[in-house]
Design goal:
Pfam families: Iso_dh. By secondary structure, the protein is α/β, with parallel strands linked by helices. The chain has 2 domains: about 180 residues, Isopropylmalate Dehydrogenase (3-Layer(aba) Sandwich); about 130 residues, 3-Layer(aba) Sandwich (Isopropylmalate Dehydrogenase). Helices cover about 40% and strands about 20% of the residues. It is globular and about 55 Å long.
Length: about 375
C-alpha cells in the first residue's frame, strides 16, 4: 500500500508551489519601529524632489517619518536645531543647497560634513536598463574623502591681489577613507579599488594619500589594487569606463571624477549617493552638478526625482529595511526601463508628479 502511494505523493509534491525566497535579513526585536529622519528640502528643485520622496514613502508605507527643517544656502550657518535633529536621528535626507559664489559665505554642505564628521562621500554611477548611454557595463562607485584637501576652507589674502589657499592632507583621514573604500569593496563583493592622485606633482600631499592607500591595500589581499593619476583617470573614464570598479579619491578629485562618471552613466539626475560618518549619514543626489536645477524646472514642475528616490533606497538599506529598499529601487528601475515617463534630461517631457505616479504604480 505504501509503495503504491509513492507516485501519487510525488505528483502531489511536484504540483505544489514551493517558495524560493530565502531569508536575507533577521531583524532584532524592535527593528521594525518607524525611524525618524531629518528632512532638509533645500533650494531650487530640492522641495520638489524631496516632496516626491515623501509621496513614494507614504505610498509604500515605509517605516520612516520626517522631521522637516527649512535650510537655505544663503544662510550664514546651519541652524543649531538642525544639527541637533541629525545627531538625534542619525540620518538625514537632503535636497540641494545652493552655494553662493564668493562673498565670504561658506558652503553649508561643507559645514554639515565637518560638524557631523561625514568623512566618506559615496556616489554609485551605473547604467540603468533602458536608458541609452555611450558606454555599457558602467558600474563605478566613487568614494571621496569629504573633510579636508582643497575643501579645508583655509584661505586668505596675503597681500592685495594674492590669495593663498591651503590643501590639507593628513595620515589619519587618508587611512580612514582608504579603509572605508576597501571595506565597502569587501562587503559588496567588489573586485578592485583604484586610488586617484596627483602625486607626481604634489609629492608630499598626494604622496601621503597614496602611501596610506598602499598600506591599507596590503591588508586586503583578495581585492585588486591600482593607482592612476587624476588627468589620465578622466581620459580613461570617458574612453573605457568599464575598467573601473571602486575608486577612492581625495576631496577635490572625487568631486570631478564622480560628476564625470555620472555623466557617462546617464546623467546626474539618476545617480544616488550619500555622505557617511561613523555615527551619522546624509543622503542626497549623488553627483552635485546642477543639483538645485534652474527656475524653469521649478516653474514647470519637471525636475527629475530619480536620483533622490534611489538615494532614499540607499537610506532605507542603511536603516536596515532591505525589503523596502529593494521595492523602491525595483520600481524606479522599472519606470526607467519602460521609458514612458521620463523627465527632459532623460529624453522625455514628463513632470515630476507623473514620474512619481509611475513609480507608485510600479511598486510591488
Amino acid at each position: 500500500m505504501a509503495t503504491r502511494s509513492v507516485p501519487a505523493l510525488k505528483r502531489l509534491l511536484s504540483s505544489r508551489h514551493v517558495p524560493t525566497r530565502s531569508v536575507t535579513y533577521m531583524p532584532r526585536p524592535g527593528d521594525g519601529a518607524p525611524r525618524p529622519v531629518t528632512l532638509i528640502p533645500g533650494d531650487g528643485i530640492g522641495p520638489l524632489v524631496t516632496g516626491a520622496v515623501e509621496q513614494v514613502m507614504e505610498a509604500m508605507h515605509a517605516p520612516v517619518y520626517f522631521e522637516r527643517f527649512e535650510v537655505h544656502g544663503d544662510m550664514k550657518q546651519v541652524p543649531p536645531e538642525v544639527i541637533a535633529s541629525i545627531k538625534k536621528n542619525k540620518v538625514c535626507l537632503k535636497g540641494g543647497l545652493a552655494t553662493p559664489m564668493g562673498g565670504g559665505v561658506s558652503s553649508l554642505n561643507l559645514q554639515l560634513r565637518r560638524e557631523l564628521d561625514l568623512y566618506a562621500s559615496l556616489v554609485n554611477c551605473c547604467n540603468l536598463p533602458g536608458l541609452p548611454t555611450r558606454h555599457e557595463s558602467v558600474d563605478i562607485v566613487v568614494i571621496r574623502e569629504n573633510t579636508e584637501g582643497e575643501y579645508s576652507g583655509l584661505e586668505h589674502e596675503v597681500v592685495p591681489g594674492v590669495v593663498e589657499s591651503l590643501k590639507v592632507i593628513t595620515k589619519f583621514c587618508s587611512e580612514r577613507i582608504a579603509k572605508y573604500a576597501f571595506e565597502y569593496a569587501y562587503l559588496n563583493n567588489r573586485k578592485k579599488v583604484t586610488a586617484v592622485h596627483k602625486a607626481n606633482i604634489m609629492k608630499l600631499a598626494d604622496g601621503l594619500f597614496l602611501e596610506s592607500c598602499r598600506e591599507i591595500a596590503a591588508k586586503y589581499p583578495g581585492i585588486a589594487y591600482s593607482e592612476i593619476i587624476v588627468d589620465n583617470c578622466c581620459m580613461q573614464l570617458v574612453s573605457k569606463p568599464e575598467q573601473f570598479d571602486v575608486m577612492v579619491t581625495p576631496n577635490l578629485y572625487g568631486n570631478l571624477v564622480a560628476n564625470t562618471a555620472a555623466g557617462i552613466a546617464g546623467g546626474t539626475g539618476v545617480m544616488p549617493g550619500g555622505n557617511v560618518g561613523a555615527d551619522h549619514a546624509i543622503f542626497e543626489q549623488g553627483a552635485s552638478a546642477g543639483n538645485v536645477g534652474n527656475e524653469k524646472l521649478w516653474e514647470q514642475k519637471k525636475a527629475n526625482p530619480v536620483a533622490l528616490l534611489l538615494s532614499s533606497a540607499m537610506m532605507l538599506r542603511h536603516l536596515q529595511f532591505p525589503s523596502f529598499a529593494d521595492r523602491l529601487e525595483t520600481a524606479v528601475k522599472r519606470v526607467i526601463a519602460e521609458g514612458k515617463c521620463r523627465t527632459k534630461d532623460l529624453g522625455g517631457d514628463s513632470t515630476t508628479e507623473e514620474v512619481v505616479n509611475a513609480v507608485i504604480d510600479a511598486l510591488e
